[in-house]
């Protein structure tokens, strides 16, 4: 009995081994045949002749053009490049991509993703024709640091501009430090200052609506509200291509009517620097330094005293470990929900809970006017 018991598994093992060897032989044969086929075709005389003829008729690439929707992108985020290869009938339009510095990747379809290490640097994204024509093109891209949703972040916002005398000072400070902010602008001030918007948008800043000329939206008709917003939207779209930007109502004033007609998220603030009132650079800086994770900070880029502190505020917050993001990035990275007429003050953990509770028990709301943005900031 003992020996029989031992023999059975042995014969089973032999069959198994046999099967494995058989599979191995079959696979090896298949691979071998494929290999032989491959080497046969590459030395095939007829095919070589045909290739030669094709080379003669080959249309070489003469030009490549690359464009990017925004010259500034965030590390880790995808951007679709638009690539045009001419002439249209070029035989081989395939491109070889390369990214300078800390680099990134470009897919066959032109989707560019900068590496995290490329944050706070400018890289060249280059495409070269693969047909030996030597045609190439490149585009320079500013890369902002990747956002870590687990780390502290704040959104700096500037209202009432643009102002050609003061706004560029803020833009210079943001640009130098690879930081971004959100600009809630009055349509009346955008007119004639479109170049400021274009520069600002290309730097990665958020272009946002602050009405046409600063009326209290709770005091005008719904048709007037709509016109205040749509006229400003149109100028922002014309300058930057941004559709339906977010809204900060003048004075932070809104009611149920405003909420029901604006068709956009309403962004208020959680940290008021009172810069419009103090007109004091040091006091504005000190106020910003009290920021906590998730805050939306209110300032006005039309005051000399405010823009004078821009660089110190930006670098100060960065040194404190805050990632500087736009309002929409704050909501995107913290999974906040935007809606038409939804109201947002900040994206602190505490506020997120409050928002959830408020949404659950939302009934009729009293008119809300946040006591800031005094009349003196009203449009002239
Ligand atoms: Zn304002």
Characterise the protein shown here.
The protein has 13 helices and 17 strands. With 380 residues, the protein is α/β, with parallel strands linked by helices. The strands form five sheets. Strands 10, 11, 12, 14, 15 and 16 form a six-stranded parallel beta sheet that branches. A four-stranded mixed beta sheet has the order 2-9-8-5, with no helix packed on it. It has a three-stranded antiparallel beta sheet with strand order 3-7-6, with no helix packed on it. Zinc ion (ZN) binds next to loops. The site of zinc ion has 7 residues, from loops.
The total count of helices amounts to 13
Arithmetic mean of pLDDT: 85
Radius of gyration: 30 Å
* Classification by helices and strands: alpha/beta
Fraction in beta strands: 15-25%
Which percent bin holds the helix content? 25-40%
Ligands (ions, cofactors included)? zinc ion
Order of helices and strands: HHEEEEEEEEEEHEHHEHHEEHHEHHEHEH
Q: How far do the termini sit from each other?
A: 108 Å
**Number of strand elements:** 17
Low-confidence stretches: 1-10, 20-44, 374-380
Question: Largest beta sheet, briefly?
Answer: 6 strands, parallel
| Silhouette | globular
Record keyword descriptors for this entry:
single chain; 380 residues; alpha/beta; four-stranded mixed β-sheet; disordered C terminus; binds zinc ion
Topology:
Elements lengths: L1 H41 L2 H13 L5 E5 L4 E3 L4 E2 L1 E5 L8 E5 L4 E3 L4 E4 L6 E9 L6 E9 L8 E7 L7 H10 L5 E4 L1 H4 L3 H9 L3 E4 L12 H19 L15 H6 L4 E2 L3 E2 L2 H4 L2 H8 L7 E5 L3 H4 L2 H10 L3 E2 L2 H7 L9 E2 L4 H12 L20
Helix pairs in contact: 5-6
Zinc ion (ZN) binds next to loops.
């Amino acid at each position: 009995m003992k020996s029989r018991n031992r023999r059975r598994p042995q014969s089973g093992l032999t069959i198994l081994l046999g099967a494995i060897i058989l599979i191995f032989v079959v696979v090896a044969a298949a691979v071998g045949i494929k290999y032989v086929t491959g080497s046969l075709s590459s030395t095939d005389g007829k095919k070589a002749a045909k290739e030669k003829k094709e080379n003669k008729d080959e249309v070489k690439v003469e030009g490549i053009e690359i464009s990017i929707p925004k010259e500034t992108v965030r590390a880790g985020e995808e951007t679709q490049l638009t690539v045009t290869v001419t002439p249209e009938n070029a035989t081989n339009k395939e491109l070889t991509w390369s990214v300078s510095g800390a680099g990134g990747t470009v897919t066959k379809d032109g989707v560019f993703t900068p590496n995290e290490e490329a944050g706070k640097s400018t890289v060249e994204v280059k495409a070269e024709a693969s047909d030996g024509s030597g045609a190439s093109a490149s585009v320079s891209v500013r890369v902002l640091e990747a956002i870590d949703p687990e780390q502290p972040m704040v959104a700096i916002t500037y209202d009432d501009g643009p102002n050609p005398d003061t706004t560029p000072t803020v833009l210079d400070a943001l640009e130098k430090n690879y930081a971004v902010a959100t600009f809630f602008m009055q349509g009346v001030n955008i007119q004639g200052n479109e170049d400021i918007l274009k520069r600002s948008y290309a730097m990665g800043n958020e272009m946002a609506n602050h009405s046409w000329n600063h009326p209290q939206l709770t005091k005008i008709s719904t048709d007037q509200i709509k016109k205040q917003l749509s006229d400003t939207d149109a100028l922002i779209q014309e300058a930057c291509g941004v559709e339906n930007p977010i809204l900060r109502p003048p004075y932070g004033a809104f009611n149920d009517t405003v909420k029901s007609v604006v068709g956009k998220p309403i962004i208020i603030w959680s940290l008021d620097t009172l810069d419009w009132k103090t007109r004091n650079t040091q006091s504005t800086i000190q106020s910003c330094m009290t920021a906590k994770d998730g805050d939306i900070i209110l300032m006005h880029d039309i005051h000399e005293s405010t823009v004078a502190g821009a660089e110190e505020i930006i670098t100060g917050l960065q040194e404190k470990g805050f990632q500087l993001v736009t309002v929409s990035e704050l909501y995107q990275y913290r999974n906040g929900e935007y809606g038409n007429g939804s109201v947002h003050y900040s994206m602190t953990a505490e506020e997120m809970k409050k928002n959830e509770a408020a949404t659950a028990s939302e009934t009729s709301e009293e008119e809300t006017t946040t006591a800031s943005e005094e009349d003196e900031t009203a449009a002239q």
